[in-house]
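Continuing the series of single-chain predictions for the mutant panel. This is the parent chain; the variants come on the following pages.
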Amino acid sequence: MSSFIIQDETINKLVNFFVTCSYSKEEFKPQITQEINKYGYDLNYNQEDKNPDANNLGQRMKVLNKKAWNYRYNKRGDFDLFKQDETLNEYEIYQILKSLQCFLYQCSEGNIPKDKLYITLSNIEKILISYIVSNLDEFKKAKWE
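Parent structure:
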């Protein structure tokens, strides 16, 4: 298995999607907000402070990915700073899921899967999968037996 560092653009899109979940009551989004809140972050957008928890979450994701990469290649490297870019948005649910799965895969080295953030993001992955599957026509047509 190879490992790579996820681009800040992808982390930004994920974090910004999580932020949109914090102010939406639409379907699955409150569940995602609950997971993020359980982790200890409040992503409710605030004009005054530009949501420091969103930037902190992005930084934490970036560090998690770098730790996994360092573990995979037995390296020690500095951790670059993450800067939230609120203009990078992705609202297509399939792309969000795929990007999240890629992130989780790239972080699946060493003891990273036991990290609280990794577990939180894995729970969000399950929420997204459940939402997507339950809205497929084939699933809706399947018998409840």
